[in-house]
Amino acid sequence: MDSPAVEIIDLVKRYGATTAIDGLTLSAARGAVTAILGPNGAGKTSTIEICEGFRRADAGTVRVLGADPRAHALRPRVGVMLQAGGVPPAMRCGEWLRLVSRFYASPLDPQALLVRLGLAEHARTPYRRLSGGQQQRLSLAAAVVGRPELVFLDEPTAGLDPQARHGCWDLVGDLRAAGVSVVLTTHHMDEAERLSDHVVIIDRGQVVAEGSPAQLTGAERQLRFRARPGLALEELLNALPDGSAAKESPAGHYILEGQVGPELLATVTAWCAAEGVTADDLRIERRTLEDVFLELTGRELR
């Protein structure tokens, strides 16, 4: 179908005097991975919970697979991974996944899914005795066991070790290859950059930027290096080609932008040598999604 998997128009959600979502408009294409990024308190989880049918919007329109998010008919078509909870503490890991699978007409094999996510040896372990990462993987398994058309993943790799995190990435990739629509939130910019077809950055309940990871990061290259804090960047800029920019962020970490090529590289290394500065970890790379995120949402703690 040509209609989006998720379509949100002018969404508003308030909690008392606080407006968590303020006229949010976005869409997630079918068969694609859409990442919703934002600082803490930006409105990500509230948006996802409204799409999942767990919360009501105060204003605006939300359509999920063309239907109202609270429609009963959506339940077998949509998988949901919650941030935490939802499983009886005494329920054994394998029993829970088998129980969830019985609600669907053609589920995946629960045992194979436990093996895939490294949970087979914990099949008889009560949920409360699983580690945080194991509980997270069980929630992911429960979200996909019913072969959904659309999956909502709210911070799916929070608390996972590198091996489990890569296993989750592989599973998301398999879902996308099978034509499943995936909407995820994450605080890991590298994860969003690696997995997503489309990224939406929201702040204070509104969209501040969206596009593919390549569109958001652009084609510009940067020269980065580490040195002692407080270098005289104005003096360095005077020696660089017109149109160059330089900043120190964080202290002792320097980023130069502009026509990054042999001339700029030679100028920087010569300037550092003349100033008695050792430029450590000198490298040329493209802007990252994290760079874009911080430029748009700021660096202050929320």
UniProtKB/TrEMBL annotation:
It is a peripheral membrane protein. One of its GO terms (cellular component) is plasma membrane. Keywords: Antibiotic resistance, ATP-binding, Cell membrane, Membrane, Nucleotide-binding, Translocase, Transport. Coiled coil: none annotated. Pfam families: ABC_tran. Residues 6-229 form the ABC transporter domain. GO terms for biological process: response to antibiotic. The keyword Transmembrane does not apply. Its main location: membrane. It is found in: Cell membrane. One of its GO terms (molecular function) is ATP binding. PANTHER family: ABC TRANSPORTER ATP-BINDING PROTEIN. This is ABC-2 type transport system ATP-binding protein.
